Amino acid sequence: MSEAAHGSANSRASVHQAGRGALLEVADLRVVFTLARGRELCAVDGMSYSVVAGRTLAIVGESGSGKTVSCRAVMGLLPPSAVVTGSTRFQGTELIGLSDEQMRRHRGANVAMVFQDPSRSLNPTMRVGAQITEAIRTHRQVSRREANEQAVDLLRLVRMPLPERRFAEYPHQLSGGMRQRVVIAIALACRPKLLIADEPTTALDVTTQAQIMELLLELQAELGMALILISHDLGLAASYADEVMVMYAGRIVEQASALELFAHVRMPYTQALFQAIPRLEREAHSPLPVVGGRPPDAAGLTAGCSFAPRCRSAADDCRAAAPPLAEHEPGHLWACWHPVDGGA
Amino acid sequence: MPGSESPPEPQAGPARRQAAEPALLAVRDLVQEFSVPGGIVQAVSGVSFDVWPGETLGIVGETGSGKSTLARSVLQAPRPKAGSVVFRGTDLVTLRGRRLMQARRHLQTVFQDPFGSLDPKWRVRDIVEEPLVAYRTGDPAARHRRADQVLELVGLDPAAHGRRHPRELSGGQAQRVAIARAVALSPSLIVCDEAVSSLDVLIQAQVLNLFEQLRAELGLSYLFIAHDLALVKQVSDRVAVMYLGKLCEVGPGESVYREPLHPYTRVLLDSIPAAAPGTSRAAATIRGEPPSPIHPPSGCRFRTRCPRAAQHCAVEEPVMRELAVGHTVACHFPLESTAAASKNAMPVTSTTARSDEKMGETPR
Questions:
Q1: Residues of B in contact with A294 (CB under 8 A)
Q2: Taking burial as the number of CB atoms within 10 A of a residue's CB, which of B6, B119, B192, B314 is the most buried?
Q3: What are phi and psi of B68, to 5 degrees?
Q4: Could you say which DSSP state residue A324 is in?
Q5: Cα(A305)–Cα(A287) distance, integer angstroms
């Protein structure tokens, strides 16, 4: 259950120092859900990338583009109805095909995930401290007292004000930003090498969002973690990530360093995403450039580029065959027959 | 329709406008409080503002700033504890029953979650016709025509979408239905509470453009409430910044963003990730958490987190004063502004304004 038949477009070993240095290598990842009446929904369609320790990769896309599903595949957190093929190697170890028990050990030791809404990630009936010590004692055999000390240390690590006091409080006594700090503390309890943050700031206010993003980057530097930032916000991704990957309808459509992507957008979809963001520099009431329509239904993908029906530069060749994702310029990959060349 | 007039000039100050025409909505000293086990939440504490015909007033604030409570108090749901809400010349606070309902006909709302505000058992057409039925507008055939009209106006196909249930729509389409329902009765003001916040960015842009189109075509005014500053700037003529139940700054969108006068506005602006990578990250992050609205700080409510706070700020509550044309601020030590410099009665340099002593009530 590896090496999917689907594979070609992703010959791009040069992007990262593939093999050595890469913490996580994903090759040709494909996730298919089986729906009622035998219909299939291809949520992730041949995705390849790698993540290096100490670096931040942002995966950007709209709802349903496959960004969260692809990361859940790496975490082994997909329901049994999902068929995962391809390869995801963590420090050289293949994850696809691991038993539940092996996967649980992998998760505990290597990867942790932070989700969008901190209030849903925490148990409302348990004190903050107990939730952190539970995470510590699940992964390591330490005494209760040691676990308590480590939990307070973790709260201090995530810059929680008055960590000893917060330790004894319940989630509802904390603000949204503080709750997200607790979630991050729990995620760090197993000292992960890779932290996946799925929309970590979407439920938070702008001032809190800045605090949490700064915290994540500081922790990453302190602990040398790799960070995958999943976001719908291209602006946020471009500001905080080293590398940005844009997904549309289950595929990567453009990938480059944040600087390069911002300076030279190639894929019309990425450009549309950039342009649709209201920005402070924009004149009030000026019409936002929009693309019509909405993303295709992943259950009924047709031949050709999946963005073609909404794309202003689309031509006949776009509808005939899907452009492969290829490295057209050093470090800059895109999947488009008629790339644009524009700043964001 | 008020909208047949030209849209208000962004620079027009309150004094100038008052002489010309009455405000569409004039809110004065609005107070809203709730009893909770720990005390009384002072959600809105004396807020005053105007919305002029054809104007969009944006209100920005963080979670817990009271902006949604403010919106609901304007709608009299529930009624505010004190203050007046004069809409089209009538104080809604004094109205009851049918008279309130008649006044509210011109005051519609669009909320954040379209699926939460649309009855899942109803078809789209019935949802849009419902306010027409409630106000006994026309006969069934006329209501039918009006529903077709507004569905087309918001970019939906009456034949195709009209028969569907909300669950058969995408988020953007469902929000369009909510907007169609809001404009069905030809209101003069729509209160939008985080109306596009749950939508993906491309759909959000479509809906924002729709709001602008309706404003131009129907002469609508909006009270546009959101936490996203760039979004609010995009749609607003004037912007009000709210913190812990009070407005701290109100002014033309451009001046508030280009030359904020209140330190809190500055903090909000600095928290937005820079547009270009490399310059990277937010310019500054604010420390601490907002204080509890049950025990708001004395004097200026922002002082516990304010980099410019001094002794005086804890003693006396700053009142709103106009430092530039149409640009008011409630701060003892407002930021320097080129436009305000000439009018600023108390020019303060950053060194004198800054107190060495931090009056931190919130944990740091």
A1: 170, 172, 202-203
A2: B192
A3: -70, -40
A4: P
A5: 27
Residue B198 near residue B110, CB atoms below 8 Å:
no
B82 domain-assigned: no
The 10 Å Cβ neighbour count of residue A112 is: 24
Rounded to whole angstroms, how far apart are CA atoms B114 and B103? 24
pLDDT digits (tens, 9 = 90+) for A72-130: 998 888 988 899 999 999 999 999 988 988 888 888 789 999 988 888 889 999 999 99
Contact A285 B278 (CB under 8 A): no
Q: Which of B201, B237, B268 sits opposite A273 (nearest CB)?
A: B201
Q: Is residue B302 included in any domain, yes or no?
A: yes
ipTM: 0.80
> How many CB pairs lie under 8 A apart between chains A and B?
134
In Å, how far is B111's CA from the nearest CA of chain A? 17
Q: Is residue B319 part of a domain?
A: yes
Per-residue pLDDT of chain B (364 residues; tens, 9 = 90+): 443 444 444 444 444 455 568 899 999 999 999 998 888 999 999 999 999 999 999 999 888 899 999 999 999 989 999 999 999 999 999 999 999 999 999 999 998 888 888 999 999 999 999 999 999 988 999 999 999 999 988 888 999 899 999 998 888 889 999 999 999 999 999 999 989 888 888 888 988 999 999 999 989 999 999 988 899 999 999 999 999 999 999 999 999 999 999 999 998 888 887 666 655 455 556 767 778 889 999 999 999 999 899 999 999 999 999 999 999 999 999 998 665 444 444 434 333 333 333 333 343 3
Chain B positions touching A291 (Cβ under 8 A) are 202
The rounded distance, in Å, linking the Cα atoms of B51 and B222 is 8
Burial call B329-352: b when 16+ CB within 10 Å, e when fewer: bbbbbbbebebbeeebeeebeeee
Distances (CA, A) of A248 to A72, A87, A196, B160, B221: 17, 21, 20, 27, 36
Residues A276-289: pLDDT tens digits? 988 888 899 999 98
* Closest residue in chain A to residue B208, using alpha carbons only: A288
Instruction: Tell me the nearest-neighbour CA distance from A276 into chain B, angstroms.
Output: 6
Residue A328 has pLDDT above 90, yes or no: yes
Structural domain count, chain B: 1
Query: How far lies B135's CA from each of A208, B117, B126, B189, in Å?
Result: 44, 19, 14, 17
Domain residue extents for chain A: 22-105+230-277+289-334
B237 near A CB under 8 A: yes
User: Can you name the residues that pair with B41 across neighbouring β-strands?
Assistant: B34
Q: Is A276 on the interface with B (CB under 8 A)?
A: yes
Q: Round to whole Å and give the CA distance between B177 and B191.
A: 15
pLDDT at B362: 40
Q: Give yes or no for B229 touching A (CB within 8 A).
A: yes
The residue in chain B having the minimum alpha-carbon distance to the alpha carbon of residue A160 is B364
Domain that holds residue B340: 265-353
Kindly identify which residue of chain B lies nearest to residue A234, measuring between CA atoms.
B201
Q: Which of residues 157-176 of A touch B (CB under 8 A)?
A: 161-162, 175-176
B273 touches chain A (CB under 8 A): yes
The pLDDT confidence band at residue A195, using thresholds 50, 70 and 90, is very high
Chain A residues near residue B62 by CB distance under 8 angstroms: 205-208
CATH architecture of the region A22-105+230-277+289-334: 3-Layer(aba) Sandwich (3.40)
Lowest mean pLDDT among A12-26, A34-48, A293-307, B101-115: A12-26
Which among A211, A235, A278 has CB closest to B285? A211
Bridge pairing between strands B321-324 and B327-329: antiparallel
Does residue B298 lie within any of the structural domains? yes
